[in-house]
Amino acid sequence: MAIKKILVTGANGQLGWELSQLANKLPDYEFIFLDRTQLDLAKPASFEAILNQLTPDLIINTAAYTAVDKAETEKELANTINTIAVQTLASISKKNKIRLITYSTDYVFNGQSTTPYLPETKIDPINFYGQTKASGEQLALQEYPSTIIIRTSWVFSSHGNNFVKTMMRLMKERPELKIVGDQLGRPTYAKDLAMATIKMIDAINAGKMVQGIYHYANQGETTWYDFAVAIKANAGLTCNLVSISTKEFPTPAIRPCYSVLATDKIENELDLVIPSWEVSLKECMQILS
Length: 289
Fold this sequence. Notes:
By secondary structure, this protein is α/β, with parallel strands linked by helices. The protein contains nine helices and 13 strands. The chain has helices at about 15-25, 45-55, 75-95, 130-145, 165-175, 190-205, 225-235, 265-270, 275-289, and strands at about 5-10, 30-35, 60, 100-105, 150, 155, 175-180, 185, 190, 210-215, 220-225, 240-245, 260.
C-alpha cells in the first residue's frame, strides 16, 4: 500500500518543525502535524482513538522525553514517553497496518567503544534516559518488526532548544565558558535528518525493503568543545572558551564519552550523501543570524 497520509508527532520539536518546513514542498504527501496538546506521549491510552480518527498510512514519531538529567528523577514520566508510548504506537500500527518511524539515540550505547557504533552493536545504556530509549526500541520491534528506528546524536536546529542556540546565547552573555572536551560524537542537523526521513518514505513507496534500525548523523566527529569553537567562529563572537574534562563537569546522568554512530547502512540503502556537520552548522547559523 502506498503511503500518502503521514502523521507527525512532536510538531513543535526540532525534528517535527523541520519536517513541517519540508511538508509544503511535498505535494505527493498529506501531512498531519500534532503537538503535545493534540497527542500527548505521556497518555498512551489516548492514542488509539486519535489514530482511528485520523487513519494515517505512516506515523513519524518525533516526540520524546529528552531531558537527560531530569530523567534520573522523573523516571516514571520518561519511561512512559520513551518506552510505553513507543510500544503502544507500534502495537496500534501493527493492528492497523500503519508504517511507523521512530527515533532513538546514541545514548543506548555505553560510550566505551573506540570505533563507530553499528546499528547491530549490542546496546548497553549507562543512564536512565538511555535505558528508556533502549527499551522503547526493543519493545517496538518485538511488537511490530516492520518498525523503523533511526538513532541519531547531538541534534541541533534553528528551532527549539539545542546546543547551538544555547552556546550562541551564553557566548554573548559571558566573557568565558567552560566546555567539555573529552566526549566525542557526530552532531546532527535536524533539517538533514528530516530530509533523510522523507527519502526513506520515498524508498518504501518505491517498494524497497526498509525496516529495523538505522543510524543518522552528519559526517565528521567532534567534541562539544570543538563544536562550540566552530559556533563561536561562525557567529564572530569573542567569548573565551576553555576545554574541561567530563570529571570537571559532573551531571546527574552519566554521559558516554564516545558517541560516534556509523551511518553506512542508511547511506547505502537510501543512496544518501550526508553533509558534514560543519557545512550544516553554517547553514543553520545563517538562518539564526
